[in-house]
Amino acid sequence: MPIYEESFRIGSGRYIQGKGYISKCGDEVKRVGTSAILIGDDTSLNLTREKIADSMTAAGLKYEFIVHNGTCNDEAATKIASYAKEKGYDVIVGVGGGVIMDFAKVCAHFADMPVINIPTSSATCAAYTPLSVRYTPEGKTVGTMHFENEVNAVIADTEIMAAQPVRLLLAGVFDSLAKFLEIKHRYNEKDESYPLGLDYAYVLSKRSYDFIVSKIQKCLDDIKKGEITEDFETLIFTLIAVTGVISGIARGSNQTALGHKFYETTRFFFPEESKPYLHGEIVGVGLLLQNHFNGEEENNTFLINLMKKYNMPFKITDVGVTDSTEVFEKYYEKISHSSAINHQNKEECEKFRQSLLYFRNLNKE
Questions:
Q1: Which residues of 299-312 are buried (b: 16+ CB within 10 A; e: fewer)?
Q2: CA distances from 178 to 19, 22, 253 (A)
Q3: What is residue 35's predicted lDDT score, i.e. its pLDDT?
Q4: C-alpha 180: how far from chain center
Q5: Do the Cβ atoms of 270 and 138 come closer than 8 Å?
Q6: CB of 282 within 8 A of CB of 319?
Q7: I want to staple 33 with a disulfide (CB 3.0 to 4.6 A). Which of 91, 95, 275, 290 is the partner?
Q8: What's the pTM?
Q9: How large is the angle between the packed helices 243-250 and 166-184, nearest 10 degrees?
């Protein structure tokens, strides 16, 4: 499969992580500018506003909070970028989940300003990666914007991460597990002809996968007891930073990426129905399709048990999609003609169709 990105966009110029690190916001802004627009949704800003304001004030910086509860869309980002330039701000700071992380990067792109991200959840690696998944204001996918400039800094406060709902943490887990499962289908460890960087992406993604599978239950138990352990610190670093690095050095090459293609297709055809569900939740459902396509259906037992235990979606109907032959034909046509499947290879297309049939049969469980 072709390489989709020429450069190795590793992700973030600075990544700092630790307990109470949100208090470092002012110092990080001061590294790249003199004043900042801080963008977040109501939930995230209610959680962080006071500590961020104290940090910005202590650093002697001008700042202003802007609430954005919508999608990551170009229309809203353009307006905020224009406002930031008009008022003399020179840094954009995103505070929130994956949507806000992506949105802050788009705002910074249009404003031609540095961007600092402060994630309040580890549901995706969006805080770290130099790209944004964009939508219409109504929530329909419109494509990914890739940036030439990296994120200037990411501040991951593990006290905030430990307080996030389990649902968000698990969404990040599924998103990270996807990296290994999506690379491994076309990867052969004995082959030496893969694109530069893909070997390292494979090794990192395998290490991440093994760590997450072995430690996720312990980490969930730790934070339930209010303990921020070394394993939990490593988990957060894996979900945000390591997963972002894997994405950057793989450059989109040689991957079936059915988990993410299932996500994109779901958001495309069913934006309103799938709106209540997180990126990682939908990708996680798509991983069941990926495992079957990889010839490793047995690996779905662990994923499905985890999903059931924590009331996460695991069937296509669990994410707002209707179970019908017409719907599955839509998925087949769109995904089989995407970069995930070689639509000129009849054997691969038939294999994908059989995986979709298996996927559909999960609705009977």
A1: bbeebbebbeeeeb
A2: 28, 29, 15
A3: 98
A4: 14
A5: no
A6: yes
A7: 91
A8: 0.87
A9: 30
Lookup: tokens for 329: 């034909």
What does the longest C-alpha to C-alpha distance in the chain come to?
A: 63
pLDDT at 50: 98
Which positions of the chain have pLDDT values less than 50? Answer: 254-255
What's the confidence (pLDDT) of residue 192?
63
Alpha carbons 80 and 62: distance in angstroms, whole number: 17
Residue 257: per-residue pLDDT: 79
CA 296 to chain centre: 24
For residue 172, what are the β-bridge partners?
Answer: none
* 143 half-sphere exposure, CB direction, 13 A CA radius: 3
Question: How is residue 78 annotated by DSSP?
Answer: H
142 is written with which tokens? 């419109």
- Side chain identity at residue 122, one-letter code: S
321 and 270 Cβ atoms separated by less than 8 Å:
yes
Quick one: tokens of 189? Answer: 């460890």
Task: Count Cβ atoms within 10 A of the Cβ of residue 59 and give its class: 0-12 exposed, 13-18 middle, 19 or more buried.
Answer: middle
Helix ranges (H only) for 198-257 are 198-224, 230-237, 243-250
Dihedrals phi, psi of 291, to nearest 5 degrees: -60, -40
**Environment class of 295 (CB within 10 Å of its CB; exposed 0-12, middle 13-18, buried 19+):** exposed
